[in-house]
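Morning!

This is the sequence you dropped in the shared folder:
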Amino acid sequence: MIVHRTIFLVLALSIGAAAAESSTVSTSTGPTSTAVISTAAIRRGQLSRPLTLYGTVVPATGSTYTITLACDAVIDRWLLPVGAPLPGNTILGEAHLTAEAAAVRSEALANEAVAQEDLRLLRARLELKLATQAELVQAESAAHIATVRAAAWRTRCPDEHITFVTPVAGTLLATTVTQGQIVSAGTPLAVVATGAQEARLGIEPDDARALTSGTPFTVVVSRQPDVHLAPSAASMISALIDPDTRLLTVLVPIGQGQVAFGSGLSATVERQGPVGLLVPRAALVSSDAGWCVFIITDSVAHAVAVTITAEYGAEAVIAGENLAPEQLVAVHGSSVVSDSMRVQVTNEEDAKAGANTANAHTPVPGKEQ
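The structure's back. Tokens below.
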């Protein structure tokens, strides 16, 4: 009986001590847990990301000359390949008049000779009083018309066999007709690049909206590491989508004669994003109420609800109440931090700055401690 009373007394004392200890823990106030973190300062800036565009080398706008013939002809042969450098007055190829054009030319030259002979005979008859002045005027008019027509053929096609030349210096960029092809007068035969070059690049419409003419590009020529092109500003960004590529076109000047036409190249440009408060993406924490960051003040973390405006790479633009540049946010270790938790900052300079920062914060539901 005495033993039973002793055991009951010991149990009662143990339960009382445990209850007293539990009461002591539950009535304590203030942050009790500590997390080890690193911090970074909020800064105001503009989020940007690099874009890489691809394209080819083309002549600059207005830097080409088109070769044509003034008569209907048949192309006999090309004497130079595409890409050949061209001094001025270089012969590009040979052709001959079509049968119809040759017949018209011959007729025009023959008519001139006949009209001139008729005029000579009429003048002789006029001296003998065998012709009238009206007949002379008519003969002179006919001779003049015939001479003009013949002169036009001599100018356009001095001979039935034609050599076509480029009057300008440059590079043979393209030929548009082939050997044996019949071409009409005025048909383009070839294109000569005469001056500056441009990079013709393709860009997604969404990316193009962030760029303007004058945006600087850095251009790199494919497989030509020895070619170094100076950064250059875009001269034009098209407003119409190319139906073949579904991209917009960007033209960037790249100088003159440094790269072969048609060469592949790439270009990089910084796409400028929104201006706002920048934080490391590692500082963003997902909570039941959305996204938040933890502002560190006096070694205590305060949860602040934020909206992510934009993000790229390691940074994000955020918006929220009572946020300001130079405030410190938890970065590494933020995933184990909750609202009002005491923290140990591993970067001492940030810890000192945090102790001097007094700001109001908007808390969001945090994690259980």
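Headline: The mean pLDDT is 84.

More detail when I'm at my desk.
O.
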